[in-house]
Amino acid sequence: MSGKRAVEFRFLAEPTHVNFGGKVHGGMVMKWIDQVAYACAAGWSGLYCVTVSVGTIRFRRPILVGHQVELIARIVYTGTTSMHVLVQVRSGDTKGDEMLETNHCIISFVALDAQGNTAAVPAWVPKTEEDRFLQQYAVKTKAFSQQVEQDMLDYYQETTE
After folding, report:
1. Mean pLDDT for the stretch of residues 66-76
2. Using CB atoms within 10 A of its CB, is residue 112 exposed (0-12), middle (13-18) or buried (19+)?
3. 66 in the Ramachandran plot: left (φ > 0), alpha (ψ -120 to 50) or beta?
4. Residue 160 clears pLDDT 80, i.e. is over it
5. Phi, psi dihedrals of residue 61, rounded to the nearest 5°
6. Has residue 2 got a pLDDT over 60?
7. For the chain, what is the largest distance between any 2 Cα atoms, rounded to a whole number of angstroms?
């Protein structure tokens, strides 16, 4: 039996989260993304999971100190032992209703058993049009990532021989 498909974190951006420009540091946002995505993957699989890759992350707008931050992670594609999690990050003034997307990405995890070997994960099946779109988005992201990684490996193998 699989766990919950989605996990949501909400909190306030604090002064300790900012960079020299006074905005929340991109590295801090990436840490939050990894944490919420891990909680989602581990909850879905019921197993310890490790990050394999993070793709398509683009920072569209800054997060300001004092703003409410919302991260929503949801399973959008599963393989035999892997899970692809879409994380959407939004923020907004606590006194307003509007939460604007600051960035989103796909983060991939592999589940591990107690011995550290890859382990099977429950299959996720899309049910809505949005689910099917997001599954295809994850599949395209995975294929692109694998191709550019192979290009890099090929290049360095050719230049070191």
Report:
1. 97
2. middle
3. left
4. no
5. -155, 155
6. no
7. 61
Which helix (H) or strand (E) element contains residue 90?
strand 82-92
CA dist 67 and 24 (Å) reads 10
Please tell me what DSSP assigns to residue 24. B
pLDDT higher than threshold 90 for residue 108: yes
With beta carbons less than 8 A apart as the criterion, state whether 47 and 113 touch.
yes
Structural Rg of the chain based on CA atoms:
17
Q: Please, which residues have CB within 8 angstroms of residue 98's CB and are 6 or more apart in sequence? A: 92
Total-model pTM = 0.90
- In this predicted structure, what is the pLDDT of residue 146? 86
How far is the C-alpha of 107 from the C-alpha of 42, rounded, in Å? 13
d(CA 59, CA 67): 16
Q: H-type helices in the chain, by residue range?
A: 26-45, 129-160
Mean predicted confidence (pLDDT) in 21-45: 95
**CA distances in angstroms from 142 to 71, 79, 94, 118, listed in the order given:** 22, 11, 36, 18
Lookup: tokens for 159:
């230049």
Cβ-contact 17, 28 below 8 angstroms: yes
